[in-house]
Amino acid sequence: DAGVIQSPRHEVTEMGQEVTLRCKPISGHDYLFWYRQTMMRGLELLIYFNNNVPIDDSGMPEDRFSAKMPNASFSTLKIQPSEPRDSAVYFCASSLMLIAASSYNEQFFGPGTRLTVL
Amino acid sequence: GDSVTQMEGPVTLSEEAFLTINCTYTATGYPSLFWYVQYPGEGLQLLLKATKADDKGSNKGFEATYRKETTSFHLEKGSVQVSDSAVYFCALSDNTDKLIFGTGTRLQVFP
Q1: Do B43 and A106 lie within an 8 Å CB cutoff?
Q2: What is the pLDDT of residues B64-111, one digit of tens each?
Q3: Among A96, B78, B90, B92, which residue's beta carbon has the most beta carbons within 10 A?
Q4: Would you say A11 and A76 are in contact if contact means Cβ atoms under 8 Å apart?
Q5: Is A59 touching B (CB cutoff 8 A)?
Q6: Torsion-angle region of residue B76: left (phi > 0), alpha (psi -120 to 50) or beta?
């Protein structure tokens, strides 16, 4: 398996533009997570899906951010309009469903998309 | 709510030195504990894990023991290499869907 795939790896855009980040999870995984990493705030969970359904979007900073998962092999994170403070590295991760309460759920991370908003 | 606290970085060491990165947690139940590592320009990857008290996770010479009495999961390695330079994240899962990460500790190893 190729692992979690993210595109683009780097994105530079101007303030006010729409940005779309893409993720392909590992085949067969039930969960998909979107994270944002900045120096100031560390690693933040934005939203996650289970079987393509959004479960918790409480980490999404504001209405400018939206995420979709139209099928099991693809997800997007969209920022419209983008602002300089959105500059960060955005990670996608996927995992299998918990088998039992005592099991663990290793998350497999993609390489990230480095977003710069000028 | 549940949380993870890591020591501030960067941690700077010479090659072959002993490494400790402290991690403590707060959780209402009995979480599973993890250390993830992020090499420059890459995503995070699981380094080791422990799912119950007194378990010791180990991988690539790194070890961490789940200490329920001190709510700690400190990462150790007896002899670090330059290739260990990375950011290390402590994390917990309260056996739900999510992982809760610490802020990360940067390790820099010099020859």
Answers
A1: no
A2: 999 999 999 999 999 999 999 999 999 998 766 788 899 999 999 999
A3: B90
A4: no
A5: no
A6: beta
pLDDT tens digits, residue range A28-59? 998 999 999 998 888 899 999 999 999 999 99
As a whole number of Å, the end-to-end CA separation of chain A is 36
**In angstroms, rounded to a whole number, what is the distance separating the alpha carbons of residues A12 and A21?**
12
- Token pair 């959105």 is at which residue? A86
Residue A68's region, left for phi above 0, alpha for psi from -120 to 50, else beta, is beta
Q: Contact, A90 vs A35, CB < 8 A?
A: yes
Structure tokens, A38: 């900045």
Chain B residues in contact with A93 by the CB 8 A cut-off are 43-44
Do B101 and B6 meet the contact criterion of CB atoms below 8 Å apart? no
Which residue type occupies A75?
A: S
- Token pair for B26: 């707060």
Contact across the interface for B52 and A110, Cβ inside 8 Å: no
